[in-house]
Amino acid sequence: MKNYSRKEKLKHGFWQNKPMSEMSKVEWEALCDGCGKCCLNKLEDDETGKVHYTSIACRLLDNESCKCSQYSARHQFVPECIVLTPKNIAEHAYWLPKTCAYYLVWKGKELYDWHPLVSGTSNTVHEENVSVQNKTIAEFEVNDDEWEDYLWEEEV
Question: What is the pTM of this model?
């Protein structure tokens, strides 16, 4: 159980008053709630632009921890992996989960009580059934033409 506020010496509530562009790397990374939803493969409707999540996870997502197994070197394995930054969040916000702290802070909204920065533990995202923990299938197990059969049924 990681307590971001104590271990990383982050000021509690920093996300409420500090612009994203002024956050340190540690603060920025701490916004991630660890749900793993951003690592689900998505299908985008060419006509409507609507994004549909699938239960097919990136090959690097650990299904149990909901963390990238190669986070620091992920682009060597998945060149198309997006590095979300304060500068590009507006460009990518449309596909982010609506529960995502990056999205919420960008929109000026409050974090959910289960967010690790609020609850003080990284387990609450799993305990509250918000994460993809043990709900995914690895992308190498599904043919590309079958992805529509694996649409994510839960609200994202």
Answer: 0.89
pLDDT tens, residue order, the chain (156 aa): 444 444 458 999 999 999 999 999 999 999 999 999 999 999 999 999 899 999 999 999 999 999 999 999 998 999 999 999 999 999 999 999 999 999 999 999 999 999 999 999 999 999 999 999 999 999 999 999 999 999 998 777
Answer yes or no: is 11 within a domain. yes
Which residues span the domain enclosing 24?
Answer: 4-150
Contact 55, 36 (CB under 8 A): no
Q: Is residue 111 part of a domain?
A: yes
The CA distance from 28 to 19, in Å, is: 11
**Total count of domains within the chain:** 1
| C-alpha–C-alpha distance, residues 134 and 89, integer Å | 28
| SS3 annotation, 88-154 | CHHHHHHHCCCCCHHHHHHCCCCCCCCCHHHHCCCCHHHHCCCCCCCCCEEHHHCCHHHHHHHECCC
Question: Residue written as tokens 């289960």?
Answer: 114
In a domain, residue 155? The reply is no
